[in-house]
Amino acid sequence: MASSKSLTFKVTRRNPELIPPSNPTPHEFKPLSDIDDQEGLRFQIPVIQFYRSIPSMEGKDPAKVIREAIGKALVYYYPFAGRLREQEGRKLVVECTGEGVVFIEADADVTLEDFGGDALQPPFPCLEELLYEVPGSGTVLNGPLLLIQVTRLKCGGFIFALRLNHTMSDAAGLVQFMSAVAELARGGRSLSTPPVWNRELLNARSPPRVSCTHHEYDVVPDTNGTIIPLDDMVHRSFFFGPAEISALRRRVPPNLRTCSTFELLTACLWRCRTISISPDPHEEVRILCIVNARTRFNPPLPAGYYGNAFAFPVAVSTAENITKNPLSYALELVTKTKSDVTEEYMKSVADLMVIRGRPHFTVVRTFLVSDVTRAGFGDVDFGWGKPAYGGPAKGGVGAIPGVASFYIPFRNNKGENGIVVPICLPGYAMEVFVKELQMMSREEHDEPASTVKRPVFIASAL
Q1: d(C-alpha 256, C-alpha 336), whole Å
Q2: Is the CA virtual torsion 346, 349, 354, 357 positive or negative?
Q3: What is the pTM (predicted TM-score) of this model?
């Protein structure tokens, strides 16, 4: 029996099975790129999609339809059916064994409406029931590279949940695979975007030479124990619609108002979060922005490339400068940082990985943001239409809870399109964070913060 503060339901799972490619595939060894192959990507990332029942699909079993489509998709994406091996120099290589991916078929005595209906957003109650961690399957080396669970709901809808070994793909690459499964599930005979491996495009040069500055891989001692404590962590989601974004824009000088929503939101969250965890004023704090570099190559990476093709450029400042200066200070740092990513920058990262033994990005006093608003999770259609929610299953994933947040496209119950951001913070810090955010995202001429009518955070599905 799964239960959370408000939602209780029972999930009945069949035994996990391995789905191999539906036709024979080559047995070969395929090295990952030197961008895939970094310590900070050696973890499993969860994604979840909620689908409504539709009359035209009545009598069709989503688990059966999707299971068959996965087998067909793996003929094209056969490296996903293999296992990762580690070679000399910690180099990761996929052995294409054709063993397959883990698939779980399940039923839950709950409806889509019970999860929040039109207001679905992370964190989701009882995620571990909807994406079951098959014992022993979560290892990065020698384990399955994908785990997929399809859970039928009482209302005729279903949940598609997936866990990906992040070394294999980024959000864009994962959506490409999911879209391939969806295309075949809808009866397609071939794929509109065939997969491209070509991982050598993002390999280190010979000889490797670090040509750019990469503060994201600085070795920073955790002097004051300021990696976020893992107990008392609170998950909350925050909605930024047109009103909140325009209120934030008015907080920066006219010459900065042409910045992107991503840059504005990132600067705001970095500032609020720094205030909430109150580091020593003279300590450095960092914001890591995930930047998709596919189009920053000349020529751009091939359309079907499904490996990791992003960088983590970082902005660094003292805590005091972020908290005491106006929002424009953080915004200018973020804007400059995003523009740092070029083809040369990506080659320099690959070279650094080889020279320095594949280090983890710095996590001490670091906040990482990843914008998946354009990744396409919301367009994956297995035949039941677009999902009611599609995207990351929670914030703070990876080795260190609380370090990462995602920007997820979201339509609220007023029909406004905006961005929902799951945030994970210690309880004491979350209270401060909410107050700061409310002050920053309300109109200048509004009533005092204590009487603001429109809270920026939304009740989570918990």
Answers
A1: 12
A2: negative
A3: 0.90
